[in-house]
Amino acid sequence: MERVIKAARSSGSLNLSNRSLKEVPEEIYRNLDSHGEDDKWWEAVELQKLILAHNNLEVLNEDLKTLNMLTVLNVSHNKLSLLPRAIGELPLLKALDVSFNLITSIPEEIGSLASLVKLDCSSNELKELPSSLGRCLDLSELKASNNCLTKLPDELANCSKLIKLDVEGNKLTSFTEKMPMSWTLLTEINAARNLLTSIPESIGLLVKLIRLDFHQNKISSIPSSIMGCSSLAEFYMGTNLLSSLPAEIGALSRLGTLDLHSNQLKEYPVEACNLRLSVLDLSNNSLSGLPAEIGTMTSLRKLLLTGNPIRTLRSSLVSGPTPILLKYLRSRLSSDEESGSGTKTMKDDQIARATRLSLSSKELNLTGLGLTTVPPTVWETEDVVRVDLSKNSIEELPNELSTCSSLQALTLSGNKIREWPGAVLSTLPNLSCLKLDNNPLVQITCNGLEALTNIKILDLSGNKSSLPESFSFSRLPQLEELYLRRMQLNEVPQGLLTLQRLQILDLSQNNLASIPKEIKGLTSLAELDLSDNNISILPPEMGLLEPSLQVLKLDGNPLRSIRRPILDRGTKAILKYLKDKLPEQ
């Protein structure tokens, strides 16, 4: 131990974990004073990082204040029952981990930690958090799971930089409306296994929220404001008291996982069939039937229905493979449409209504009308900012679109466009979102892609072998979301791993066999879908994405390097496993 402590005087970092310590060695508190005759005392540095995890410590004494240059303190997995007031005299402390102890209260002095960014006090015996925590204005990550908390202090709403909140396994009965109103930067909330009875209406203000876990509570309804959570990718509401779902849930365009098992749902709303889910768990509810529109949810890989009194479907369909069930439901939908199909007049009415709406909303929506061409009469305003022509049979873009110089978003998904519409796209200087997925594009030209200088969202999924070999995605530096599903890709496209602003990357359903270690450069990445490829091993460097990456999808790969229990525990566990595989620097 003497050698380790001596080394810490030059490195500023000391790790004494797993040493069966019953008390903190006095030499640590006298770090710079206890040098030997042979030490070069003038080269010594103050202790900045102290790790005492996995020991048998029962007390931290007030001498802790002598370590006033500490930025990281980890005393997790010990036998501490309290923290000294001196904890508040560490002005530079950024990360404090006191998890897995026997702590019953945290001193109010913690509010003096003006630099605190991360606090982990999970798995203790806390009945409350100190109100002074609201003075830690830089706090971005709070973990307080598996305690005995009955409420969160109102002052916590002052922590407006909060990004991750984990309060799973407590006795919380409510969140105040004020909290989500202040926490607009939140990307993750885990409040599972509590006694919550409702979700605050202000939840809709969390536009950056990616993962929301309220499973195993006593919540009876989801507010319609949930539609405001436009970045939500995973939503867990299993084992609650839900009897219905709001139609507005269908507006969550990025939602991939929706867990509703073990509730009291009597029906699944048709509006929710617009979701592009990969996993939908409706097991153990009170569903007697399903809307045929679920059959159109072709992205679904797993639909769980067991434990419902469904009478309109054969039991073999309910418990069988998801693709077969979806195909059956689609066939029912087709027959329904044939028996009650609209007339040409009805279609004309829909087009006229969409045209009138575009004058006030600046959005033109002609999706799913079976159009082969776009009627010239719809272009009554040149100020339109969003145009949705998806799910039609359009083969080429109308020239009138070139007059819409204010256009920001153009959706052309599911049409019959074969040639890259470069002539029209080059006339749209403000275009930031282009969705051309599921078209029979033969070839995308390099010049065509390079013209998209301001593009932030690009979806080319389902256009097999259409990417030009010489093109580098580094020429699109503004990209924040990129979807390249079902493109027959054999490797990660050139230049893609240099996109510093990229937040969502979908490379699912391709032929990728490996992922380059340079993926660690995507430091803004929040969601990565690698499902349904041929990947057998992941680079340890991927673990370095842990601060930003919230959702990692790996289903359908022959992964052999990661054990199934780790994969089943989800993104956090996988990234930690990979990070731990990195060689120590």
Automatic annotation (TrEMBL):
<dbReference type="Pfam" id="PF13855">
    <property type="entry name" value="LRR_8"/>
</dbReference>
<keyword id="KW-0677">Repeat</keyword>
<dbReference type="InterPro" id="IPR032675">
    <property type="entry name" value="LRR_dom_sf"/>
</dbReference>
<dbReference type="InterPro" id="IPR001611">
    <property type="entry name" value="Leu-rich_rpt"/>
</dbReference>
<comment type="function">
    <text>Leucine-rich repeat protein that likely mediates protein interactions, possibly in the context of signal transduction.</text>
</comment>
<keyword id="KW-0433">Leucine-rich repeat</keyword>
<dbReference type="GO" id="GO:0005737">
    <property type="term" value="C:cytoplasm"/>
</dbReference>
<comment type="similarity">
    <text>Belongs to the SHOC2 family.</text>
</comment>
<dbReference type="InterPro" id="IPR003591">
    <property type="entry name" value="Leu-rich_rpt_typical-subtyp"/>
</dbReference>
<protein>
    <submittedName>
        <fullName>Leucine Rich Repeat</fullName>
    </submittedName>
</protein>
<dbReference type="InterPro" id="IPR050216">
    <property type="entry name" value="LRR_domain-containing"/>
</dbReference>
